[in-house]
What does this fold into?
Amino acid sequence: MQKRLITIIEASEYLGVSVNTLYSWVSQKKIDYVKIGRLTKF
It folds into this structure.
């Protein structure tokens, strides 16, 4: 089974937190993420 990367908006809806909170977690390295160019995926 292939894992699918999701956008920051999809992740915020799934986790029930704001997009700003996710960006904060990314900068603090509290959540795993992948950078594809300028895009942040989870």
About this structure: DSSP finds two helices and two strands in the chain.
